[in-house]
Each structure stands twice: as C-alpha cells, then as structure tokens.
C-alpha cells in the first residue's frame, strides 16, 4: 500500500481534536503517517495529541510557536515521507473510506492528477449534519477556469495531493496571514495545482466540515478579501487564463455581501458590494441574481436539494446519499464558456517559489527517524 501523510494543524483544538484524530485513526487505508502540528496552543491540545502518539506509532507531534494555519500545514508537508499528502483541520471529520477512495481515483486515472477532492457535509458542534448553504459540484478534469469562477471545493480537509507537487509551490502560502487575509490558503494551492494538471473527484461526502462560532470561514469580510487576494496572486502568475474568468471569479465573492447582511453588518456589506460592482458591474449583478433565484426556488419548492441525512450523526450517514446539484452561481452559457476556456489552456505551470525553510518545533516521538 502507498504511504499517505496526514497533516493535522491544531491550535487550541482540545474540544474537537480527539474526534478528528479518531476519524483519521479509523481509515480503512491504514498505511499512514500522521503529524499533529500544535501551533502554539494554550489549552490541552498537546496533552490530547500525546495520548494518540503514545497509543499509535503512526501518530507524531510537532510543536511550534503560533504561526498560523498555513505555516502549521507546511510543517507537516516538510516532514512528509508519503507518496501523497492530505490535510485535516483539527475540528473536521473524515469518513473511514476517505483516503482509500481518493487513492482509487488516483490509480484509475488515465492522466496523472494534480489532486483529488471529495464532497463534504457541514456538521454542528455535536457532529450532526446541518444544511449546506452551497451545492456540491463535480468539476474534475482540467478545471482551473471553472474553479476560479465558482470555488466549489474550498475546504482543505477534502483534498489529497501528490507530495512532490505540493512541495513545488511551497505548500500553503503563509503570506495571507501576514497580509491580514488568512483563510483562502487552500483555494490558492488548489488553483496553483490546477495549472499543472487535471483534478479528480470522489462523488461522496467523505468530510464533515464543522461549523461553530470560532470557525474561520464565518468571518465573511475576511473571507471575501482572502478570496480576492488568492485570485490576484493567480492572475499575476498565469498568462493563459482569459481576463473575463477572473472578473467572474471576483464577482462570485458578492455572495459574502449577503452573508454580511445576515450578520447584521450592512455597512461592510455595502462597501464590499460597491468595490466589486465598480470592477465588474455586470457579473456582480449576475451572481447576486443567480443566488437570489436559487434561494427563491428553494423556498418555493420545499426540499429542493435537501440532504436526506440532515440531523444524522456524520458517522452514521451514507456518504453517497449527499446531493450533487452542480453550479449554483453560473448560467449554462457561462459553464460552456468556462469548459471551452479550460479545454484551450496550455499547461505551462507557474513560477515555482523557493523551497520552504526547515520546519520549526520539536518532534515528540520515540520513533521519529533521523534526518
């Protein structure tokens, strides 16, 4: 079996870390090495991690001063010796077959894949499935234009990457945190990888993406800014993607304006909308109209796109039963244009950044191999 590296960045994650690690430990593909990266936690995160490392030799701990989620993920990447690497945030869950089914997609592919992603379900603090405000879409293949326009698979816990390819880009970009727009490091890496080759998809909800009051993705203003920064970095590093694709990609962040309104932040919502409208007025209005149309259809046709497993514990739900409804914020005409743009692309790759510095922190494991 192929050795798979699992990196688990953890910062003050004592409430959820045990459940996350048990879902990793239960993988049907058992040939794994797991690096729990304690990113300067002040709670019992390290003590919990030590219990797993003592009981299971596949688990090892790295401690570092608090440096942010991207830096923590990259420590795991630097230590990785697996053929593939996959990440899971310390509050998320995996179905037991997650790694196994992603490997099957890699092995069956006729063309080498840049990464494989899976579907996901949102879960609450008690691991029960809650409604997803987004739809799931299979956009496997050469799909960088479609992903720029939609960001349909954004959570890091769902992807698996050949370790060598992840290292070509230095892993997740820590500069987003330095710029105050942490959050879209996973989107940026996915787009970078997509410049090199096609993506694969497992059409099952093999990830439980947890929503709670401290969830990073609930800071909608920062999420919007982070998305836009990731698009800016990709636009500056690629020359063969049409400008209209990036305009559509920026416009889709108008959805955050609606989230900000629901959060009771109308001034920030309006400011974000005006900024987007000035750059791409037509696409911004189109995206808002499409979102409004989708929400109206859901209200009129009760149960449209509803997950049959709502309220069920994630571990008890059939991962194949989750609805895959395709793009929510694109017309069929734009889907066609995006597919054509992806088909025309030459795959030159983008500039490869310098290698990552040596990881900080100390590895806490009696079985850690000498470097």
User: Shape, please?
Assistant: globular
The total domain count is 2
Oligomer: single chain
How much β-strand is present in the residues? Answer: 15-25%
Q: What structural class should be given to the helix and strand makeup? A: alpha/beta
Low-confidence stretches: 347-371
* Terminal Cα span: 24 Å
Helix content: 40-55%
Radius of gyration: 20 Å
What is the element string, with H for helices and E for strands? EHEHEHEEHEEHEHHHEHHHHHHE
Number of contiguous helices: 14
Number of strands: 10
Question: Largest sheet at a glance?
Answer: 10 strands, mixed
What would you note in describing this structure?
The chain is of the alpha/beta class. It folds into two domains: 1-91, Spore Coat Polysaccharide Biosynthesis Protein SpsA, Chain A; 95-157 and 179-345, no CATH class. The protein has helices at residues 17-25, 45-55, 69-79, 98-108, 144-150, 163-168, 175-178, 185-194, 220-237, 243-251, 255-262, 266-279, 281-300, 332-344, and strands at residues 4-10, 32-39, 59-64, 84-87, 93-94, 115-123, 129-130, 159-162, 199-210, 362-364. Strands 1, 2, 3, 4, 5, 6, 7, 8, 9 and 10 form a ten-stranded mixed beta sheet that branches. Helix 5 runs parallel beside helix 10 (243-251). The two termini are 24 Å apart. 47% of the residues are buried.
């Amino acid at each position: 079996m192929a050795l798979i590296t699992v990196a688990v960045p953890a910062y003050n994650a004592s409430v959820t870390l045990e459940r996350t690690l048990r879902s990793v430990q239960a993988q049907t593909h058992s040939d794994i090495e797991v690096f729990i990266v304690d990113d300067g936690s002040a709670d019992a995160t390290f003590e919990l991690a030590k219990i797993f490392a003592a009981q299971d030799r596949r688990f090892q701990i790295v401690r570092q001063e608090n440096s942010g989620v991207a830096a923590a993920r990259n420590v795991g990447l630097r230590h990785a010796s697996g053929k593939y690497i996959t990440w899971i945030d310390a509050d998320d869950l995996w179905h037991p077959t997650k790694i196994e089914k992603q490997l099957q997609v890699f092995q069956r592919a006729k063309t080498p894949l840049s990464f494989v992603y899976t579907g996901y379900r949102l879960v609450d603090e008690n691991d029960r499935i809650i409604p997803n405000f987004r739809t799931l879409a299979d956009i496997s293949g050469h799909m960088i234009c479609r992903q720029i326009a939609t960001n349909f698979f954004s959570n890091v816990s769902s992807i698996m990457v050949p370790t060598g390819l992840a290292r070509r880009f230095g892993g997740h970009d820590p500069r987003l945190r330095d710029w105050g727009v942490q959050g879209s490091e996973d989107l940026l890496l996915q787009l970078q990888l997509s410049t090199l080759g096609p993506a694969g998809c497992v059409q099952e909800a093999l990830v439980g993406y947890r929503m709670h009051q401290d969830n990073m993705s609930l800071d909608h203003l920062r999420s919007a800014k982070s998305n836009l920064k990731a698009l800016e970095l990709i636009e500056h590093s690629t020359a063969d993607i049409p400008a209209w694709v990036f305009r559509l990609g920026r416009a889709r962040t108008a959805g955050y304006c609606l989230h900000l309104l629901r959060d009771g932040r109308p001034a920030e919502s309006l400011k974000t909308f005006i900024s987007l409208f000035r750059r791409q007025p037509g696409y911004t209005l189109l995206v808002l109209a499409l979102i409004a149309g989708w929400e109206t259809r859901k209200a009129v046709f009760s149960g449209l796109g509803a997950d049959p497993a709502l309220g069920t514990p994630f571990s008890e739900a059939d991962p194949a039963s989750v609805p895959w409804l395709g793009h929510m914020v694109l017309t069929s005409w734009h889907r066609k244009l995006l597919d054509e743009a992806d088909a025309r692309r030459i795959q030159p790759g983008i500039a490869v950044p310098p290698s990552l510095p040596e990881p900080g922190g100390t590895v806490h494991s009696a079985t850690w191999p000498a470097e």
